[in-house]
Amino acid sequence: MAEAKWYVVHTYSGYENKVKANIEKTIENNKHLAEQILEVRVPMQDVVELKNGARKTVQKKMFPGYVLLNMEMNDDTWYVVRNTRGVTGFVGPGSKPVPLTEAEMKPLGIKTENVTIDFVEGDSIAVVAGVWKDTVGVVQKLDFGKQTATINVELFGRETPVEISFAEVRKLQ
C-alpha cells in the first residue's frame, strides 16, 4: 500500500465545495476508497471586512479554484478524482500529479505527523483542552486523516456530536 500524500486539484471557480462534497460522496459509496482518499479540504482563512463602517470577520477561500486531497496516488484514486464533476485536473506537469512538500504544507496548517492514541470507538474520554475542556464523552467515530475524535456531549438537554482533536483528549481509566 502506497503512502498518502497531499495533492492539489484544480476546479472550476466557485465549484470547490461542490467538488469536495462530490468526492466525499464517492468515498462514502465506495468503501475501498475510504482507505485511499483520506481527506478533502478547501483551505479557508478569516478575513476582516469593513462594510458600512462595521468590522466583520468572514471566511474566504485561501486558494479559489483549488481543492487539497490527502490520498494514495494510484490508478483508481486518480480516475475517481479526475472524473469528478467540476475537476479540471491535478496540479503538476502534464497528467502527472505532484504531491505537496513539507515546506508547502506548513503555512496551510496541515500536520503530517501522526498522534498516537490509546482509545478506540466506545471508550469514554475526557477533553483536557479547548472549548469543550472538562467535558466527558463516549467516542463515536475516529478520523485519523483529520486526527479527530467525534464524541457526544449534552447540549441544551440533548446529545450533540462534537469533533475534537486527538491532542485535546485523554482516555478515562
Q: Can you list the strand order of the major beta sheet?
A: 10-9-8-7-11
* N→C terminal distance: 35 Å
The Rg value, from CA coordinates, equals 18 Å
The gross shape turns out to be globular
| Assigned CATH class of the largest domain | Alpha Beta
- The strand count comes to 11
How many helix segments? 4
The proportion of strand residues reads: 35-45%
Give the topology string: H per helix, E per strand: EHHEEEEHEHEEEEE
Helix content: 10-25%
**Mean pLDDT across all residues, rounded?**
84
> What's the CATH superfamily of the largest domain, by name?
NusG, N-terminal domain
- CATH fold-type name of the largest domain: Alpha-Beta Plaits
| Poorly predicted tracts of residues | none
- Count up the domains: 2
Q: Can you summarize the main beta sheet?
A: 5 strands, antiparallel
CATH architecture of the largest domain: 2-Layer Sandwich
The secondary-structure class comes to: alpha+beta
